[in-house]
């Protein structure tokens, strides 16, 4: 990635719906060059997808919780991850070091819904201990970072 690619990715992170012509004007490049660079960034996997970020509360998901999961043995990991991948209320899942194996971010409508999700998770084969934290307020929530650009030395 060079400085222009970096600027393209930074602009797309702010607004993935920006027109190529506007982006080209912003970074002083031709429209066709911007489109070619975007295609290359997509093909290389740097840009994986484009999405919509929604406001969970406005959608009715008033409760966000973080749940730590400890498995009894690593042999249960594949089936647990398969279950997590399919569950619509589990927004993210991180494999961890330390006392717990996984951290889940769960968004749902109510504590009753969270109780059902928790019960369902506990019923998964190999799930041992869980610890759940209710999120009171989100102070920062970005989905990926773009590290500072550093010119390559020649």
TrEMBL record:
The yes or no answer to whether the keyword Lyase is present is no
A GO molecular function term, named singly, is: sequence-specific DNA binding
- Name the Gene Ontology biological process terms: response to amino acid
Question: Keywords on this record?
Answer: DNA-binding, Transcription, Transcription regulation
For whether the record's keyword set contains Metal-binding, the answer is no
Q: Name one GO cellular component term.
A: cytosol
- Taking every annotated instance into account, which residue ranges of this chain make up the domain HTH asnC-type? 1-62
> Which InterPro entries does the record cross-reference, listed alphabetically?
AsnC-type_HTH_dom, Dimeric_a/b-barrel, Tscrpt_reg_AsnC-like, Tscrpt_reg_AsnC/Lrp_C, WH-like_DNA-bd_sf, WH_DNA-bd_sf
Indicate what this protein is called per its UniProt record.
Lrp/AsnC family transcriptional regulator
